[in-house]
Amino acid sequence: MACRQQAADRVIRPKLRSPGHRKYRRHVEVAFWEQIARGLLAEEAAGIVGVASGGRGTLVPQRFDVKFQPSGRCLSFAECEEIALLRVQCNGV
User: Fold this and answer.
1) Cα dist. 38→1, 35, 63 in Å?
2) Domain ranges of the chain
3) C-alpha to C-alpha distance for 51 and 33, rounded to whole angstroms
4) How many secondary structure helices (H) and strands (E) does the chain include?
C-alpha cells in the first residue's frame, strides 16, 4: 500500500515565532536603552551596541519593558510595611 503525502507536508515554510519573542538578547536591549537614556539617537545607540539600525528593525518599537538596574530608590519590603502600618494608624509618613 502506497503512503500518500498530505498537501500540508509538501509546503515548506519557516517556523512561526512567538509574538513575545525577543529579537535581541536582554543584555543587548539594556545596553541600547542605556545609550538612549544618555541622549543618543536610536541609530547611534544601535551602532554602539552593534545591532542593525535599519528603519523598523531597530529596537525602539520592539520593547519598552526593558528594566534598568535598580537605582536604589525603591523601598524594601520592611519599609513598605512600615509605611502601611503608619497609614493605618493615621500617622504621617
Assistant:
1) 69, 5, 18
2) 22-66
3) 13
4) 4, 0
What is the number of other CB atoms lying within 10 angstroms of the CB of residue 11? 7
Quote the cell numbers at residue 30. Answer: 539594556
Query: Mutual orientation of helices 42-49 and 26-37 as an angle, nearest 10°?
Result: 140
H or E element at residue 47: helix 42-49
Q: What pTM does this model have? A: 0.45
Q: Which residue has the cell 545609550?
A: 35
Residue appearing with cell numbers 510595611: 81
Q: pLDDT, tens digit, for every residue of 22-54?
A: 677 778 888 888 888 899 888 888 889 888 766
Q: What is the Cα–Cα distance from 52 to 64, expressed in whole angstroms?
A: 18
- H-state helical runs in the chain: 7-10, 26-37, 42-49, 77-88
